[in-house]
Amino acid sequence: MRIVYLFILSSFVSLSLISQSDLERKASRALYKFDYAAAAEVYEEMLKNNPENKTAKVNAANAYLAEGNSERAEYWFEQLAKTKGAAPSYKFNYAQTLMANKKYEEADKAFEAFAASAPNDTRAKFYKNNPKYIETLIKTSPKFMISNAKALNSRYSDMCAISFNDGVMFSTTRSSNLNAPIYDMFFAKVTGDSFYSDVASMSRYVNTGLHDGPAIVSPDGATMYLTRSFQKAGSCVCSNDKTNHLKIFSSPVAFGEAKKFE
User: Fold this and answer.
1) Are 225 and 248 in contact (CB under 8 A)?
2) Concatenated DSSP letters for 188-211?
3) Are residues 34 and 120 both part of a single domain?
4) Fewer CB near the terminus (10 Å): N or C of the chain?
5) Tens digit of pLDDT for each residue in 72-121?
6) In terms of residue numbers, what domain contains 68?
């Protein structure tokens, strides 16, 4: 039985606090591209050179966590959780990875250790008030079945699908260069139970050629909110460090379309 779980991701330890070696720069580039698998490999290499590098351990654990590799995340969080004076967050994430890997008895003990180290944490209080929580989860029948929406997915990044009009809209990089991925909004009609057709890019009012998406629609369907690259007169607006920050824009939805984003 698959257990639904929530990971509370810790922030990656800033590499700016230490000297930038070639490996550190390589890991930073991978993280910038959200390539967590590649970043994790670099941190593993760094740890071979220096097994006591705590920064690399933390970043390796978080990279594996973000990638969805719970087995390797468990390994590194165990190393962190079992060190003297370990931060409660390491113990919590270690317990979570154990549960994800279906090691329920070990997870129970890890949650106890976490609760003892952070008694005032709301998660620790919840665990103490629900000592049979894991046992209850195991015995609970699944309420949902999650399957791959193959008609929507591509070899590129596809994410954040939400209901819109008579189908779904989602954010994807399928229209961009692999070396410089840019998100656009796409739409697909729902033609039956989990069947989709006519997958296509949304209008020029939604997609600008820069990052567009993800997007949501207000509960009443009257307003669309869209994350996109900040621009004026069709050009990116960058900060002093040459970074183009994403901003939230909104547009009324009329006759099923959003055309006036501000």
Assistant:
1) yes
2) EEEEETTEEEEEEE--TTT--SS-
3) yes
4) C
5) 999 999 999 999 999 999 999 999 999 999 999 999 999 999 999 999 99
6) 15-139
